[in-house]
Amino acid sequence: MTTDNLTITAMTTEYARQISHWKYGGEYSLYDENEENADEFMDGTHYICLSENDELVGYFCFGKDAQIPTVEKNVYEGDYLDIGLGLKPDLCGRKLGLSFFHKGLDFAFETFGTTSFRLSVAAFNERAIKVYERAGFCVKREVTHSASMSKFVVMECKR
Prior knowledge:
The chain is an alpha+beta fold. It has helices at 13-19, 97-112, 126-134; strands at 7-10, 46-50, 56-62, 81-87, 116-122, 138-144, 151-158.
């Protein structure tokens, strides 16, 4: 599969159900979805990314829903669009991350007109952090997820 002809469009109930069954396993199980939360993907902030054959590749979310609850205060200040994303588990580790991520950033620019982005990622997830750094993001601070007490980093980019 290539990421040349990806399209991003509004989330549908069918794709939300598929995503809610995603399991990453191992240390990445932090990102596992829960089928009871499928409706959360239908809040208008989530979008699906499809291949040219209409196969689900991943999803993006934008705005407050992309933020994580943190122990620290005032983490999400400033004029940034928060971005969250998930690549289909069986596509992870296949060198698709950067082009998939760029597609989401381009979509956000075209849709929301912003050039300032922010994201939160588990601090142990070096694979994802490298992708985001290659896309021009820099780590700004480390935070603690208030529910899991896991360490995350907040990264920012101005394009």
